[in-house]
Specification:
The protein has 118 residues and is mostly beta strands. It has no helices and seven strands. The strands form two sheets. A four-stranded antiparallel β-sheet has the order 4-3-6-7, with no helix packed on it. Strands 1-2-5 form a three-stranded antiparallel β-sheet, with no helix packed on it. The radius of gyration is 16 Å and the shape is elongated. The termini are far apart. The N terminus is likely disordered.
Amino acid sequence: MVLSGAQPPSGGGTPPSFEGLQKAFACSPIARPWPFELSWKAATDNVTPSSQIVYDIFLSHTSGGEDFSHPTWTTAPGVTSFETPPLNEPSYFVVRARDQAGNEDQNTVERVGEDPCE
Protein backbone atom coordinates (compact mmCIF):
# COMPACT_ATOMS: atom_id res chain seq x y z
CA MET A 1 0.00 0.00 0.00
CA VAL A 2 1.33 3.46 -0.95
CA LEU A 3 0.24 6.39 1.19
CA SER A 4 -1.31 9.34 -0.58
CA GLY A 5 1.43 11.48 -2.10
CA ALA A 6 4.16 8.92 -1.35
CA GLN A 7 6.15 7.46 -4.20
CA PRO A 8 7.59 3.93 -4.25
CA PRO A 9 11.38 3.73 -4.54
CA SER A 10 12.60 4.21 -8.11
CA GLY A 11 13.93 1.08 -9.76
CA GLY A 12 11.34 -1.11 -8.08
CA GLY A 13 13.77 -2.27 -5.45
CA THR A 14 16.18 -3.77 -7.95
CA PRO A 15 19.79 -3.54 -6.72
CA PRO A 16 22.64 -2.63 -9.05
CA SER A 17 24.49 -5.34 -10.94
CA PHE A 18 28.01 -5.44 -9.50
CA GLU A 19 30.88 -7.94 -9.63
CA GLY A 20 32.40 -6.81 -6.33
CA LEU A 21 35.88 -5.79 -5.27
CA GLN A 22 38.69 -6.80 -7.61
CA LYS A 23 41.85 -5.62 -5.82
CA ALA A 24 42.98 -4.58 -2.36
CA PHE A 25 46.59 -3.56 -2.87
CA ALA A 26 49.35 -1.68 -1.07
CA CYS A 27 52.98 -1.21 -2.00
CA SER A 28 54.89 0.43 0.77
CA PRO A 29 58.57 0.05 1.64
CA ILE A 30 57.95 1.69 5.01
CA ALA A 31 56.74 0.12 8.23
CA ARG A 32 53.07 -0.57 8.91
CA PRO A 33 50.42 0.74 8.93
CA TRP A 34 49.84 1.70 5.29
CA PRO A 35 46.86 2.62 3.06
CA PHE A 36 45.31 0.13 0.67
CA GLU A 37 44.08 0.99 -2.81
CA LEU A 38 40.77 -0.78 -3.46
CA SER A 39 39.46 -1.03 -7.04
CA TRP A 40 36.48 -2.47 -8.92
CA LYS A 41 34.54 -2.22 -12.18
CA ALA A 42 31.58 0.17 -12.26
CA ALA A 43 28.18 -1.24 -11.34
CA THR A 44 25.17 -0.89 -13.63
CA ASP A 45 21.56 -0.27 -12.64
CA ASN A 46 18.18 -0.23 -14.38
CA VAL A 47 17.49 3.37 -13.24
CA THR A 48 20.56 5.01 -11.66
CA PRO A 49 23.41 5.88 -14.06
CA SER A 50 26.77 4.33 -13.15
CA SER A 51 28.08 7.85 -12.54
CA GLN A 52 25.60 8.20 -9.65
CA ILE A 53 26.09 4.81 -7.93
CA VAL A 54 27.92 4.91 -4.59
CA TYR A 55 29.93 2.09 -3.06
CA ASP A 56 29.80 0.99 0.56
CA ILE A 57 33.10 -0.43 1.79
CA PHE A 58 33.18 -2.89 4.66
CA LEU A 59 36.38 -3.62 6.60
CA SER A 60 37.08 -6.52 8.92
CA HIS A 61 40.24 -7.79 10.56
CA THR A 62 38.99 -11.38 10.28
CA SER A 63 37.86 -13.18 7.15
CA GLY A 64 34.06 -13.11 6.88
CA GLY A 65 33.73 -10.69 9.80
CA GLU A 66 32.26 -7.71 7.91
CA ASP A 67 29.21 -6.01 9.50
CA PHE A 68 27.00 -5.34 6.48
CA SER A 69 24.62 -3.17 8.51
CA HIS A 70 27.28 -0.45 8.90
CA PRO A 71 29.73 0.40 6.09
CA THR A 72 33.17 1.51 7.20
CA TRP A 73 33.32 4.03 4.34
CA THR A 74 31.06 5.20 1.51
CA THR A 75 32.49 6.59 -1.71
CA ALA A 76 31.45 9.60 -3.72
CA PRO A 77 29.14 8.74 -6.66
CA GLY A 78 30.67 7.07 -9.69
CA VAL A 79 34.16 6.31 -8.40
CA THR A 80 35.75 2.90 -9.00
CA SER A 81 38.59 3.07 -6.50
CA PHE A 82 39.18 4.12 -2.92
CA GLU A 83 42.28 4.65 -0.79
CA THR A 84 41.86 3.61 2.82
CA PRO A 85 43.52 5.39 5.70
CA PRO A 86 46.65 3.57 6.97
CA LEU A 87 45.70 0.13 8.29
CA ASN A 88 47.46 -2.76 9.97
CA GLU A 89 47.14 -6.23 8.52
CA PRO A 90 45.24 -8.37 8.28
CA SER A 91 42.57 -6.30 6.56
CA TYR A 92 39.65 -7.87 4.69
CA PHE A 93 37.34 -5.86 2.44
CA VAL A 94 33.95 -6.23 0.75
CA VAL A 95 32.53 -3.50 -1.53
CA ARG A 96 28.82 -3.23 -2.36
CA ALA A 97 27.11 -0.96 -4.92
CA ARG A 98 24.12 1.17 -3.87
CA ASP A 99 21.81 3.02 -6.25
CA GLN A 100 20.03 6.35 -5.66
CA ALA A 101 16.92 4.55 -4.35
CA GLY A 102 19.02 2.88 -1.64
CA ASN A 103 19.01 -0.59 -3.22
CA GLU A 104 22.30 -2.34 -2.46
CA ASP A 105 23.71 -5.43 -4.14
CA GLN A 106 24.36 -8.32 -1.77
CA ASN A 107 27.70 -9.65 -3.03
CA THR A 108 30.13 -11.15 -0.52
CA VAL A 109 33.28 -10.98 -2.66
CA GLU A 110 36.00 -10.54 -0.05
CA ARG A 111 39.60 -9.57 -0.74
CA VAL A 112 42.41 -9.53 1.77
CA GLY A 113 44.69 -6.49 1.63
CA GLU A 114 48.04 -7.52 0.21
CA ASP A 115 51.43 -5.82 0.08
CA PRO A 116 53.73 -7.71 -2.28
CA CYS A 117 56.38 -5.01 -1.83
CA GLU A 118 56.92 -5.92 1.79
